[in-house]
Design brief:
Elements: H1 2-7, E1 13-14, E2 17-18, E3 26-33, E4 39-45, E5 53-59, E6 62-69, E7 74-79, E8 86-87, E9 96-98, E10 107-112, E11 117-123, H2 130-155, H3 174-192, H4 211-235, H5 240-262, H6 275-293, H7 304-307, H8 310-313, H9 316-335, H10 364-373, H11 382-386, H12 400-419, H13 423-444, H14 463-486, H15 495-499, H16 502-511, H17 528-551
Parallel strand pairs: 3-10
Antiparallel strand pairs: 1-2, 3-6, 4-5, 4-7, 5-8, 7-9, 10-11
Helix pairs in contact: 2-17, 3-4, 3-14, 3-16, 3-17, 4-6, 4-12, 4-14, 5-6, 6-12, 9-12, 12-14, 13-14
Length: 558
């Protein structure tokens, strides 16, 4: 392992410290307590918003070596007396505060006599972002370049089409499959670990990070494809009863597969809801609306100004249903009051607000899920570790309401494809929707992470989260559409391969989550370099699988 240690700048030993015992996002802190009594260290993690300091460790007189977690920025306080499990932020009764920026594989020294403190850096931490460049270079040299020479005629082959009409409504839009492929590839990467980086993981509570994009994008692109497939069904004059049974079958299949993949084996805490389960529910509602309320053909309006709002006017009946869902959601969120939880509370509970609403995780959203599902919810949310909150399911029941709105916004993009024939007008209309959904979402969250009427929150699937992620989806689809289906300087590959077999990719990566050669570990020597190298490897394995299926013309959908 010496070559890896050199690469990640983590020697086996440093001035007597066993550096090999440190794992990813850990550092050493040597505490020299020259006072005759023990001192007590309390910590406050930066992601624990409006929290008190929590008791970390009691340090006896003398020298003590401890390991610190460096994943999140953390500040510490030293106290001469133990004051309980927490110490309020506004309490000034402490020896000193430590605001040192502790980093991975750093070695630090803290000296205190119970009156003053002094912190020293004995060994500088490593740059945890350097492995990103290293991994890119390694895969570029040993994998991507040889692979390019083999498949370039497939990946960069320009399709010969009639250039007089860049896009026809009858041909399959590669941008849709590419969008779906980008989403599933990104989902696999972050599910495998995303290199262990904070920015690739889900936000602890409020906020928007890389992992928070993939699920809403999947729901959104499903919405884009619903009106296209429903119009095909209606044009074939398939009885609506038969078509509805097919929608119901597909929804139940998605729910059943999701239950199989994510429920676990403990019957007392078997998780009922999850990712595919929400897909099934949202598909059932939105596809049924489209089946019974959508028009088969979309003629232009007599008055020109109406054509600027064609995707709304053609679907006004569905808009009425969506507005009813939105009103119900807002009324429940802001007007329903439960014991120990104020109206409109959208926080994580636990130590948030100094523990004032300790058992109010997720407000009424969490209460509804807990009342209906009991213990059959997700047991290990990130907030449980950070806020000491109780279990909370980010894919629970109440969040389905806003997820339906997310899918419906995707339907709007699909309706634009059906009603507008000019590619320029399509791109402009999608950009319009991107701007206004993004603007409204930003206003709702107060253009910030923690403020605003409705913060950005994937766990709650808040309305601002729906609007902002849909805005980004509109932009991404516009980008893919112009490059792939209009200008045709890219044909969407390799993401196109993954997008055409997204359900196989999802089920496959879930089932083989811990299986070699897709996943592997090296002597438990966990670093960002090794984690990122392995996560990229696993993701690329599934891209190759999708390429093989594409070449064999094997495509599966539920």
């Amino acid at each position: 392992m010496s070559y890896i240690n050199k690469m990640i700048d983590n020697p086996d030993e440093f001035e007597g410290f066993d550096m090999s015992s440190l794992r990813m996002d850990e550092a050493f802190l040597q505490i020299i307590n020259s006072s005759p009594n023990s001192i007590y260290i309390y910590e406050l993690i930066s992601e624990c918003i409006k929290c008190p300091y929590k008791k970390f460790i009691a340090v006896p007189s003398g020298s003590t070596l401890i390991k610190l977690k460096t994943r999140f920025k953390t500040i510490y306080r030293l106290l001469n007396t133990q004051v309980g499990a927490t110490h309020p932020v506004d309490n000034d009764d402490f020896v000193c505060g430590i605001k040192q920026d502790f980093g991975q594989f750093g070695v630090y020294k803290l000296e205190t006599n119970g009156i003053i403190c002094n912190t020293q850096v004995l060994k500088q931490p490593v740059n945890i972002y350097l492995p990103i460049l290293t991994v890119i270079l390694i895969y570029s040299i040993f994998f991507l370049i040889p692979l390019y020479s083999i498949v370039k005629k497939y990946v960069f082959k320009k399709d010969v089409k009639n250039e007089s009409d860049p896009v026809t409504t009858k041909e399959r839009l590669k941008s849709l499959d590419t969008f779906r492929g980008i989403s599933i590839v990104l989902m696999i990467f972050v599910n495998y670990g995303g290199g262990g980086y904070v920015f690739t993981d889900h936000a602890v509570w409020n906020g928007l990070q890389v992992a928070d994009l993939v699920f809403p994008w999947f729901l959104w692109i499903m919405g884009v494809c619903i009106p296209i497939s429903i119009r095909s069904v209606l044009k074939k004059e398939t009885p609506k009863g038969t078509a509805f049974l097919n929608i119901l079958r597909r929804s139940c299949t998605l729910f059943a597969i999701g239950l199989f993949l994510g429920s676990g084996t403990n019957l007392e805490k078997l998780r009922i809801f999850g990712v595919l389960q929400r897909f099934g529910i949202c598909y059932l509602v939105v596809a049924t609306m489209c089946l019974f309320l959508m028009e088969v053909d979309y003629a232009e309006f007599d008055r020109k100004w109406k054509n600027y709002f064609s995707e709304i006017l053609h679907t006004y009946k569905m808009w009425i249903i969506i507005l009813i869902i939105l009103i119900i959601y807002c009324l429940v969120i802001f007007l329903v009051e439960i014991d120990g939880c104020p109206k409109g509370y959208l926080g994580p509970g636990g130590f948030h607000e100094n523990g004032k609403y300790f058992n109010c995780t997720g407000g009424v959203t969490g209460h509804i899920d807990e009342a209906i599902l009991g213990n059959h919810i997700y047991q290990y949310p990130t907030i449980k570790e950070i806020y000491n909150s109780k279990p909370f399911d980010p894919e629970g029941i109440f969040g389905c309401l806003t997820s339906i709105i997310q899918v419906f916004l995707g339907v709007k993009a699909g309706i634009i494809l059906l009603t507008i024939k000019c590619y320029k007008k399509r791109a402009i209309r999608w950009t319009f929707w991107a701007f206004y959904t993004g603007l409204i979402g930003a206003v709702l969250c107060g253009f910030s992470k923690e403020n605003g009427v409705i913060p950005l929150n994937k766990n709650l699937w808040s309305l601002s989260f729906v609007l902002v992620t849909s805005s980004l989806a509109f932009l991404l689809l516009t980008f893919c559409y112009l490059l792939i289906d209009v200008i045709k300087i890219w044909n969407g590959k390799p993401f196109l391969f993954a997008g055409m077999n997204a359900i196989i990719m999802y089920i496959g990566h879930s089932i083989t989550y811990s299986n070699f050669p897709i996943r592997w570990d090296v002597d438990n020597n966990e670093t960002h370099f090794l984690r990122l190298f392995e996560n990229v490897w696993g993701t690329m394995c599934w891209i190759l699988v999708s390429y093989y299926l594409y070449k064999k013309k094997i495509f599966y959908s539920i």
